[in-house]
User: Which sequence fits this backbone?
């Protein structure tokens, strides 16, 4: 069975009651609590979380008895988590559920840990131990009793056929495991809906059982308790035991919100009245003036002769008595009564049961006690409901955030890099950011927050030096003087981001921003009003948190309803209270004896008053409707300070009258309409607008004691809008700290300014960074300062207000709006892209070209500083980056990647210093030093630079005759090998690729190879095809026809030096020159695949054949892959010393091995060379040329003029196409003249001469 299935089964069975226990099945009761062993091995934090799902906590231990019980619960296990921890303060151990730590049972020498051992558990022996909270083991949960001692106490709301479900302590049926905090009372309060009272809302403080011979009134008003601590008496459905807890004797209306007076039968609530406690005491709350709920429609308005807990007193012992009238026992009538234990009673209805007993009207109106529709419950109960104290996170902070002072915090345990954490915080809330820390108190809070995770993690905070190396600042723009670095921190280098360490003191260290940690987010609570929220762009009605007097000053922040739509120009702050509905006043004859205290939710009068003080105007509507009830001297309202005010809404302040009195329109000329005091309904109403006195904190009424006298009061919420004159209204980058100022830290003074002009002067200051200004409203004095409330201590004073500048949040340059492509940063007219992929210099440049730019070269020092900032924000885990500076083309001449001389080159002192082996420029991202030169073959991150919108630069394609990875130059393909081999193995490999080790034929080819090398390599040696042959003492290329390098300048100085002594092979050395090396050495290598033939026919020779003919013969072309596609042979010839002006050619079939050439001039000397061709081009010419001299003729016959003309023009190509002797001795040939496309017949006279 899987764990999840088992858990489900456990939860389903949890709703059952085990025998006489008041605990769920599998839980064990001890005294007033239930205990459960969770056998899953969990960390302390996860174990606590599990206990919370079961409605409890890890077990707290009040005494040795509980300790022994838990030891028995964990029987069979050596150690289990209990609820003790010192996560809140190292070394200060406390129970997680808040119980008092009055008992301990530490094992000898325990606790003995440090900040890393913050959680406690119990050995099977019952002694305790401390250990890291990440330790996994079983655990013991503790939960309060929620069920009765009977198994069949209540019907099941989800199965009407069952009556064996658990009963709630407050009556009704527990809703089961799906809704562990709800109770079901009737079909109108379905489980899982808001209609149910959560179990914890009402707390039973007293109950008395019918016929128990206990005086209810005396027990309630007395100081004693009854069965307090009993495991059975404190359950409402236990109908055999009376109960009173010490809570019943505690009566503090600042925390006690309501009292429920309820009648129960068999654990089911039959009737109840709910009373508000505001303005009451422990003995006066039971009065219809304070009823907030009753099931009777007439209880508020009908006449009454008794309505108090004292009732008729000892005469008759009718207590907790709300009675309409007496008229003789048979017609006595009312709503609720306790016939208390005591002396004799006067009517038959006083003796229905043994005392005490209880009667209630079972109808919707009052009933006669003797014969009406009545109910006789078995229990009377008193239950307390307490105010929300307003300190919960949800009241002021968003869900999931924790408030501390003027900010909300959220700790996230998932680990991410720094910028991801920053983005996440800013996504969580409009003003969210990585947490800043202003002082030691805030630092202590963050430490506690981190320790509450029960892990051993560190967390990102907002401190970093990403914008400027060595200058640490907060991402949210906060400027504080506080730091909490661990010893030796910050250590610098690549570590630019701040971390809250897992420690005992909450100190910080710097870390590489690419590291992954959890993180702590924060957003401030510094908005002062709904008007300011609207200036910030919030236009939706709803609840907002405000702090009217500014951060860490005076009153705490609080939550209010903001009306953002009624007034288009501003937001209206709404202060709601519990008395906003029309309410009856009756039964209070004495002046001001009917009292209503006004509570503004969880806000104090001071908090509300501060909201009024910073507003431009406030108003609160107040109304009294009277019937025979006199106003003046009987009815009053009380201001924020509790002072009685003698005027009513709409009237002149402190004028002693109502609105009609101020306008002279009151009935019969009275000061108020109600002073007419007749039997007509009259009204006095209007707005209170003196905001220095608001809010209303109490109202009192009188003259409503007679049957014909009554009234209704209405008090609307307090509404405030606009801004006081010292509030900044035309910008949102300053926050108010009211009635405070800096003392002795002012840099500049200006006078006669408005508050908006004052803050504008601060923002515009140029000689210093203005962080705040003191404003003096009376004369417009403005004191500018480079300090603020978080860098120095501020002073209080009603005549000044401090305006603190909210500095811009730190902006990740990669996320700024720009005209550059995504992922690029922008500075000036250029875009920059740090790339965190390691490439060689050339590959990096090629990649940048693919992005439309080149490796970056800087224009000036400002651009250089920006780029360094960009590199820090890139979170590179390596510190070095390629830039475009290089001297590849010419050693010592540094240019950018396009060959231009840079306008700015911030070389580090002594750089460049690498000589021929370091041809690329790079910079370190973790230092303030500048650029250095480095070997281009090394791989590094790199920085591209481009213009906005630039498109990829087209790259030269590989020549169609070359394979992928081969480079093309002139007529050859070259492969620079990527592995090392001996010379012989390298040559074999080249030949397997249809190539040979390279033959360097010319300066151009040598320079090409050197340039190719310099772009890519600095420390590699490459074999070439040159080897030493001892047979002739010369160096030969493998392709046979080239001996020695084309130039002796190719050799490294002093080389070759090993000829004949083992160094018979030649390499292209790191100095980009040639060096001899032992052939067995493993080097890289360069293959050359010449696309033209690489050789010419061997043994080319000539023999003179008379005066005009020469016979030629030649051998074969050296066979290799590169010579296998020869398809033509050509002989070039020219008269000696006339090669440049008189070269002629004869083309022959590739299979020919001889040729007989005629038509040459007798007596002349000619030079001849031979070469072969393929479809791609011509091979090399034979060298040296072959010379041949023709014999002189015995007789010369002058040639015709046409022949002379022909000779002068020269013939580029002479091909004998046909030869025949004719009787006329003419020779017919075809010629192709230079520049002609046609072939022309030409006849030449030939003299016969015997050979």
Assistant:
């Amino acid at each position: 069975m899987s764990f999840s299935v088992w858990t489900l089964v456990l939860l389903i069975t949890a709703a059952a009651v085990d025998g006489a226990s008041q605990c769920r099945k599998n839980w064990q009761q001890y005294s007033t609590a239930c205990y459960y062993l969770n056998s899953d091995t969990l960390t302390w934090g996860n174990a606590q979380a599990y206990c919370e799902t079961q409605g409890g906590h890890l077990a707290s231990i009040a005494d040795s008895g509980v300790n022994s019980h838990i030891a028995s619960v964990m029987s069979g296990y050596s150690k289990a988590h209990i609820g003790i921890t010192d996560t809140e303060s190292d070394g200060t151990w406390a129970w997680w559920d808040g119980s008092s730590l009055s008992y301990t049972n530490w094992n000898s020498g325990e606790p003995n840990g440090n900040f890393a051992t913050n959680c406690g558990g119990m050995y099977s022996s019952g002694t305790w131990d401390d250990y890291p909270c990440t330790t996994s083991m079983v655990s013991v949960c503790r939960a309060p009793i929620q069920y009765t001692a009977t198994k069949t106490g209540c019907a099941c709301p989800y199965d009407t056929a069952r009556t064996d479900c658990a009963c709630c302590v407050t009556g009704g049926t527990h809703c089961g495991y799906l809704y562990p905090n709800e109770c079901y009372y009737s079909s109108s309060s379905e489980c899982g809906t808001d209609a149910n009272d959560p179990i914890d809302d009402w707390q039973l403080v007293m109950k008395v059982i019918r016929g128990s011979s206990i005086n209810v009134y005396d027990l309630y008003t007395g100081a004693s308790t009854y069965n307090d601590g009993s495991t059975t008496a404190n359950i409402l459905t236990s109908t055999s035991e009376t109960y009173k807890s010490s809570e019943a004797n505690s009566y503090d209306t600042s925390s006690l919100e309501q009292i429920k007076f309820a009648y129960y039968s068999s654990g089911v609530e039959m009737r109840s009245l709910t009373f508000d406690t505001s303005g009451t005491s422990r003995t006066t709350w039971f009065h219809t003036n304070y009823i907030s709920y009753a099931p009777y429609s007439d209880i508020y308005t009908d006449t009454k002769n008794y309505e108090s807990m004292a009732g008729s007193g000892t005469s008759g012992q009718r207590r907790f008595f709300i009675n309409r009238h007496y008229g003789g026992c048979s017609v006595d009538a009312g709503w609720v009564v306790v016939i208390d234990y005591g002396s004799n009673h006067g009517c038959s209805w006083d003796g229905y049961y043994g005392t005490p007993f209880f009667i209630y009207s079972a109808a919707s109106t009052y009933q006669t006690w003797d014969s009406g529709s009545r109910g006789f419950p078995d229990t009377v109960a008193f239950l307390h409901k307490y105010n929300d104290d307003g300190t919960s996170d949800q009241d002021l902070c968003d869900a999931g955030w924790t408030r501390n002072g003027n900010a909300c915090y959220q700790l996230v345990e998932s680990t991410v890099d720094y910028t991801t954490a920053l983005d996440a915080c800013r996504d969580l809330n409009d003003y969210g950011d990585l947490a800043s820390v202003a002082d030691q108190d805030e630092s202590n809070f963050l430490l506690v927050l981190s320790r509450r995770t029960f892990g051993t993690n560190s967390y990102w905070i907002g401190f970093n030096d990403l914008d400027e190396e060595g200058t640490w600042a907060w991402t949210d723009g906060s400027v504080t003087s506080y730091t909490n670095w661990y010893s030796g921190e910050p250590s610098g280098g690549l570590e630019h981001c701040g971390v809250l360490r897992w420690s005992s003191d909450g100190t910080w260290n710097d870390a590489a921003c690419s590291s992954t940690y959890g993180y702590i987010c924060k957003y401030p609570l510094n908005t002062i009003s709904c008007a300011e929220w609207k200036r910030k762009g919030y236009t939706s009605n709803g609840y907002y948190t405000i702090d009217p007097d500014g951060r860490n000053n005076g009153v705490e922040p609080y939550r209010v309803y903001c009306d953002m739509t009624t007034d288009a120009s501003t937001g209206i702050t709404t202060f709601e209270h519990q008395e906003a509905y029309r309410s009856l006043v009756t039964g209070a004859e004495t002046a001001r004896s009917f009292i209503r205290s006004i509570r503004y939710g969880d806000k104090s009068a001071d908090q509300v008053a501060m909201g009024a003080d910073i507003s431009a105007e406030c108003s609160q509507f107040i109304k009294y409707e009277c019937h025979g009830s006199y106003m003046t001297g009987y009815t009053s309202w009380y201001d924020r300070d509790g002072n009685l005010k003698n005027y009513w809404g709409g009237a002149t302040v402190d004028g002693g009258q109502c609105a009609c009195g101020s306008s002279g329109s009151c009935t019969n000329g009275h000061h108020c309409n109600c002073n007419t005091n007749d039997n007509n309904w009259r009204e006095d109403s209007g707005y209170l607008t003196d905001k220095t006195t608001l809010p209303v904190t109490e109202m009192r009424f009188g003259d409503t004691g007679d049957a014909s006298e009554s009234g209704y009061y209405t008090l609307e919420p307090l509404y405030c809008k606009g801004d006081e004159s010292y509030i900044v209204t035309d910008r949102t980058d300053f926050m108010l700290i009211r009635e405070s100022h800096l003392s002795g830290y002012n840099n500049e003074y200006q006078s006669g300014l408005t508050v908006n002009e004052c803050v504008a002067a601060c923002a515009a200051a140029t000689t210093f960074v203005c962080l705040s200004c003191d404003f003096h409203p009376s004369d417009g004095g403005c004191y500018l300062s480079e300090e603020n409330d978080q860098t120095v201590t501020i002073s209080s004073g009603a005549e000044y207000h401090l305006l603190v500048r909210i500095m811009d949040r730190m902006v990740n340059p990669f996320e700024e709006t720009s005209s550059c492509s995504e992922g690029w940063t922008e500075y000036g007219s250029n875009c920059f892209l740090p790339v965190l992929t390691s490439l060689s210099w050339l590959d990096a440049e090629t990649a940048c070209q693919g992005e439309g730019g080149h490796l970056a070269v800087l224009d000036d020092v400002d651009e250089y500083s920006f780029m360094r900032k960009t590199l820090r924000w890139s979170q590179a885990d390596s510190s070095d980056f390629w830039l475009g500076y290089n001297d590849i083309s010419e050693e010592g001449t540094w240019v950018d990647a396009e060959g231009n001389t840079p306008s700015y080159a911030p070389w580090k002192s002594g750089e460049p210093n690498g000589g021929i082996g370091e041809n690329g420029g790079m910079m370190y991202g973790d230092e303030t030093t500048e650029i250095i030169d480095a070997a281009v073959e090394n791989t590094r991150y790199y920085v591209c630079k481009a213009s906005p919108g630039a498109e990829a630069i087209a790259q030269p394609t590989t020549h169609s005759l070359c394979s992928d990875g081969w480079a093309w130059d002139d007529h050859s393909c070259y492969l620079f090998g990527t592995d090392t081999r001996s010379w012989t193995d390298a040559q074999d490999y080249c030949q397997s690729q249809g190539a040979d080790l390279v033959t360097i034929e010319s300066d151009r080819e040598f320079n090409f190879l050197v340039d190719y090398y310099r772009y890519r390599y600095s420390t590699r040696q490459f074999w070439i095809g040159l080897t030493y042959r001892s047979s002739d003492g010369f160096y030969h290329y493998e392709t046979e026809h080239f001996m020695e390098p084309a130039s002796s300048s190719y050799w490294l100085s002093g080389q070759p030096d090993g000829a004949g002594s083992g160094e018979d092979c030649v390499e292209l050395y790191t100095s980009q020159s040639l060096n001899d090396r032992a052939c067995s050495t493993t080097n890289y290598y360069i293959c050359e695949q010449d696309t033209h033939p690489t050789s010419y026919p061997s043994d080319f020779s000539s023999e003179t054949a008379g005066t005009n003919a020469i016979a030629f013969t030649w051998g074969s072309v050296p066979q290799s892959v590169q010579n296998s596609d020869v398809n033509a042979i050509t002989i070039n010839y020219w008269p000696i010393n006339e090669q440049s002006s008189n070269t002629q050619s004869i083309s022959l079939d590739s299979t020919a091995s001889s040729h007989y050439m005629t038509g040459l001039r007798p007596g002349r000397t000619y030079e001849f060379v031979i070469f072969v061709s393929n479809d791609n081009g011509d091979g090399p010419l034979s060298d040296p040329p072959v010379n041949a001299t023709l014999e002189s003729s015995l007789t010369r016959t002058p040639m015709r003029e046409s022949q002379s003309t022909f000779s002068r023009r020269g013939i580029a190509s002479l091909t004998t196409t046909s030869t025949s002797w004719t009787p006329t001795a003419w020779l017919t040939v075809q010629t192709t003249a230079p520049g002609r496309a046609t072939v022309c017949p030409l006849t030449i006279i030939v003299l016969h001469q015997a050979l």
